[in-house]
């Protein structure tokens, strides 16, 4: 393992206790704000001191409370890309990039500047000041500055959050390209699951200062282990649930009984399903596949985007108001056009293999 | 016009501003960045000259540095004379008296810095001293210049502490403000007027020159 982290820190009203490891592939640290992502990152960089634990990077102990080891930030060889970049405003782009390379001879420094400017497509920017650059350019300078010292690990703290939406995808592509040539451990912190999913292979999900899930990203998205993780991965529909005897469960808030294919060892707490996994049909149209878990439903409200519609649906009886709904379904416009004019109730199908059974 | 007094005042102010630049920066750094629980005591001590009448401060310095105290005896054994009524004594008193005018602008400038810039420097391998000289100091230049100018100006204008500690010895401790006071006491209004005008004009010139340069220097890295 390239990076092993196992730390605890108690703040006044927050407790961080996390344990995870990362190898060369970018590891995503996903969690809502206030979940301890930044504190974890800052502890690894040496800007915060945990109360207990160990941090080992490529076999080198950076922190070990039991042995009294706490390597200062300047000697850790850990690069940190700050959320707002923290470029030195009084130095040029080139001076920013070589800030950490004072010990190198002049010619080597010039070579590193060239190399980093080329790698981040910033040729021609060397003599500019950070204040005159766009957000995306500043981010590239910050990345070039962090990589110029050839750190053993690179920590990225919400690297896209300060960028305009239209800039993000280009900047993100560039970051992935740069990271693919980087040989150290990479830790990518984000509260945006899609962003984390695109950049990283493995994810660690933090909730309230503790690891709520970790593993390959597909596994976490396919089988979120807890309610918080399901919600964090974008799941919109939840209901308290109770186990019935005949291989089915009762969804209490949705007021229906659902057939399930999986079993859950722990006591059942909630059932959940993603908005895009719900299927909606007209009652009279094509026959439903197997007709399992299909219920009559009424439309409470609708929102349209260019290619999809989001339907707020109520099961069992017509809604009393536009906010009175059980499920949120996301369907492509083409499918929607097939049933939009047919009389309600429509049918909503909750396929058994798409249901998440979540422990209490 | 008493050129001797004017030169003495200038010499004193330059020395005070220089000493406070060197001694004030570490104090301001500590005040700005320390999380020590007794930090407020240091802040209070530094700010004391702002509220105390100069005579009170002068009195304590006079007694504290006099021949009966430990620091006074120590000084006497090294230099063969006591501090009060010498230029050295005047300097020590002036430094203490002008301390808040240097330390507070320094500390305010440090506190106004984005802490992440310092953290970025550390993660790039810079030591605390290196970070201070390469990041903190250049970005606090406006506050540092302000502190130096204020302590310089404050020293030129001080009167009570000089009178208490320095006395009125021509060429040694008779500064401009004392000289003007003397001349007014002697009803020599013409001489007082000439010295006062020179002092007024000179002070205005120095302050406007420094503030003017300062603004231009700052605009270098505020281009957006």
Describe this protein with a few key phrases.
heterodimer; A: 360 residues; alpha+beta; Rossmann fold; 2 domains; six-stranded mixed β-sheet; five-stranded antiparallel β-sheet; 9 helices; elongated; B: 224 residues; mainly alpha; MetI-like fold; 11 helices; disordered C terminus
Description:
The complex is a heterodimer of chains A (360) and B (224). Chain A is α+β, with helices and mostly antiparallel strands. Helices cover 23% and strands 33% of the residues of chain A. Chain A has nine helices and 21 strands. Chain A has helices spanning 37-45, 93-97, 106-119, 135-148, 165-180, 193-199, 217-222, 227-232, 333-339; strands spanning 3-10, 15-22, 27-30, 52-57, 60-64, 69-70, 78-81, 153-157, 185-190, 202-207, 210-216, 237-243, 248-251, 256-259, 268-273, 279-282, 294-304, 308-315, 327-332, 346-349, 356-359. In chain A, β17 and β18 form a beta hairpin. The longest helix of chain A has 16 residues, at 165-180. Chain A starts with a strand and ends with a strand. The mean pLDDT of chain A is 89. Chain B is mainly alpha-helical and 224 residues long. Chain B has a single domain (3-32, 51-214), classed as MetI-like (MetI-like fold). Helices cover 79% and strands 0% of the residues of chain B. Chain B has eleven helices and no strands. Chain B is globular and about 65 Å long. The termini of chain B are far apart. The interface between A and B is medium-sized, with 27 and 22 residues.
């Amino acid at each position: 393992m390239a990076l092993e982290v196992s730390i605890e820190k108690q703040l006044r009203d927050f407790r961080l206790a996390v344990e995870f490891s990362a190898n060369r592939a970018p590891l995503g640290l996903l969690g809502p704000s206030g979940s301890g992502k930044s504190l974890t990152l800052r502890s690894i960089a040496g800007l915060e001191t945990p109360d207990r634990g160990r941090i080992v990077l490529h076999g080198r102990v950076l922190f070990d409370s039991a042995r009294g080891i706490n390597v200062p930030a300047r000697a850790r060889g850990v690069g940190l890309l700050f959320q707002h970049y923290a470029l030195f405003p009084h130095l040029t782009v080139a001076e920013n990039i070589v800030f950490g390379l004072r010990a190198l001879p002049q010619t080597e420094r010039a070579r590193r500047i060239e190399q980093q400017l080329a790698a981040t497509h910033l040729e021609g920017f060397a003599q500019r000041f950070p204040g005159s650059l766009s957000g995306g350019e500043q981010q590239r300078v910050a990345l070039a500055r962090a990589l110029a010292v050839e750190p053993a690990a690179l920590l990225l703290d919400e690297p896209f959050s300060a960028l305009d939406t239209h800039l993000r995808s280009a900047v993100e592509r560039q970051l992935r390209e740069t990271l693919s040539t980087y040989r150290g451990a990479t830790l990518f912190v984000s509260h945006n699951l899609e962003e984390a999913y695109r950049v990283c292979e493995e994810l660690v999900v933090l909730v309230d200062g503790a690891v709520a899930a970790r593993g390959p990203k597909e596994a976490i998205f396919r089988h979120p282990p807890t309610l918080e993780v399901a919600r964090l991965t974008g799941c919109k529909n939840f209901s308290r649930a109770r186990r019935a005897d005949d291989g089915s469960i009762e969804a209490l808030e949705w007021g229906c009984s659902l057939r399930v294919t999986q079993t859950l060892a722990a006591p059942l707490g909630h059932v959940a399903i993603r908005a895009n996994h719900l299927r909606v049909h007209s009652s009279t149209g094509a026959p439903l596949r197997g007709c399992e878990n299909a219920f009559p439903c009424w439309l409470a409200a609708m929102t349209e985007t260019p290619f999809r519609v989001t339907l707020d649906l109520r099961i069992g009886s017509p809604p009393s108001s536009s906010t009175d709904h059980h499920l949120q379904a996301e369907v492509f416009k083409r499918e929607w056009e097939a049933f939009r004019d047919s009389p309600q109730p429509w049918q909503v199908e909750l396929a058994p293999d798409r249901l998440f059974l979540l422990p209490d | 016009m008493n050129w001797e007094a004017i030169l003495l005042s200038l010499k004193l102010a330059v020395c005070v501003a220089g000493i406070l630049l060197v001694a004030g920066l570490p104090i301001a750094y500590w005040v700005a960045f320390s999380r020590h629980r007794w930090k407020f005591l240091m802040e209070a001590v530094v700010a004391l000259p702002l509220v105390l009448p100069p005579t009170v401060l002068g009195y304590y310095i006079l007694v504290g540095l006099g021949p009966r105290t430990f620091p006074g005896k120590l000084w006497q054994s090294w230099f063969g004379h006591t501090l009060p009524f010498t230029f050295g004594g005047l300097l020590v008193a002036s430094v203490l008296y002008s301390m808040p005018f240097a330390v507070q602008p320094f500390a305010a400038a440090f506190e106004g810095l984005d802490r992440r810039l310092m953290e970025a420097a550390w993660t790039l391998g810079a030591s605390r001293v290196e970070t201070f000289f390469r990041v903190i100091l250049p970005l606090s230049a406006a506050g540092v210049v302000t502190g130096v100018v204020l302590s310089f100006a404050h020293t030129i204008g001080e009167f009570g502490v000089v009178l208490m500690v320095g006395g009125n010895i021509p060429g040694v401790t008779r500064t401009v403000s004392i000289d003007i006071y003397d001349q007014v006491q002697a009803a020599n209004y013409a001489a007082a007027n000439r010295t006062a005008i020179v002092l007024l004009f000179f002070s205005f010139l120095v302050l406007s020159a420094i503030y003017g340069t300062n603004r231009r220097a700052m605009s270098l890295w505020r281009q957006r």
